[in-house]
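Final report, section 2: Outcomes. Of the targets proposed, Sodium-coupled neutral amino acid symporter 2 is the one most frequently requested by collaborating groups, and we therefore present its record in full.
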Amino acid sequence: MTKAEMGRFNISPDEDSISNSSNSNEDFLYSDFPVKKLTINGGPYDTDPENQNFLLEPTLAKKKYEPAYIPGTTSFGMSVFNLSNAIVGSGILGLSYAMANTGIALFMILLVFVAIFSLYSIHLLLKTAKEGGSLLYEQLGFKAFGFFGKCAASGSVTMQNIGAMSSYLYIVKYELPLVIKELMGSSAVEGAWYLNGDYLVVLVSFFLILPLSLLRNLGYLGYTSGLSLMCMVFFLIVVIYKKFQIMCPDWGYHDELNITLNNTLSALVTHAPTHEVEHNETDDMCTPKYFVFNSQTVYAVPILTFSFVCHPAVLPIYQELKDRSRKRMMNVSNVSFFAMFLMYLLAALFGYLTFYGNVEPELLHTYSKVVGAGVIFIVVRLAVLVAVTLTVPIVVFPIRSSITELLFSGREFAMWRHCLITFLILSFTNVLVIFVPTIRDIFGFIGASAAAMLVFILPSAFYIKLVKKESMKSVQKIGAMLFLVSGFIVMIGSMTLIIMDWVHNATSDGH
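The predicted structure is given below as tokens.
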């Protein structure tokens, strides 16, 4: 779900295995961290009161071999649940659109590769954290590349979370007017302000989300992650169930009218019988494609990458894992990724097989054009709306902490600054949601930039720089170097193609 959920985890010093004394060369260097104050090469790092609240307990500072050392207490199963919550999110709503523009076979290939690459980057991140002696993403960046590395890590995490916030608020913008219209029935007035998504997203942001976001400690809102996951599971069940109720191409009155008009025009041009053209068009429209290449295919990899980003939450979950070791944490990652892989695949497949090429960038919104979709979708929309609305304040927290750490490091907490940064974050995100045309653009841009940095570039770059005991000619370092290069190729290639698509669409609209 969101990376901000790590705010509800206790932070305690890591220990790969207390009994495994032969592997001491992989232990964290906790002697570098004085009690109650994290440092980097003797300088203050995490002295901001907000960051301390976010970590809940600044016990990371305890030395590893002190008797007061507190091991992780979270079970394997709960760690899987927590990481699954960190993975799943609004990205699941864009996967059917990605499948429609890649085809079933190509989508499955891309999904497998992105999942494997994400797992490999977690392996690099865990090993780098051991060698670098830190469980903080920004601190690893500072240790590896100084202030530039810290800015890169902080900027990527901030962009990723802003992308997540934007996708959640897009759901509010698209779905809340439909829910209000359904609930009001015939009394709803077309064009009324309460059916305008732009107005509604601003009202929800500043009258509901803003007060919750101003709290200094949002740890108790962690229960919303479980609610969000349950909502997504419910959403998946409904998508599978509705596939066998909604018959292609019976999607609604407007679509049927467009199909009839198109078939009539085609018949006049080709002099073919109308019913023959209609039959051919329907067969083609309702036939699944296995390989598709078009102008929207470029969004597939960024959408998939965006959907699998969970890396800033990995280290806090690792920190809390009971009987922790890298092998045990990788098992947690394997189980979580496999579960989310199945969930993503089923949601994308059944959503695509319901609407085929007519699926929209946000799958839940696609059902709104189905006449008589049923009251169950009102329930689904309400559940998803509640989940994403209560999750946004958690996403605000790490963004604010990161900005505070970069611009006001070492200063005392000031409520005016706390409120101003929160207000600016929400205002900027609302501007994005109102003026960026579709959620596809958010998924694409953030997936191609920040998500690519977090999945491909930063873990491999930190590994190459901080893991000293392996030579640059070792298989591990060569693999990390190839992974780094592939990350730059994915990011630059995806960004270039997306910008070209934007320019092309702008030119087309101009004509």
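The first strand starts at residue 39 and ends at 40.
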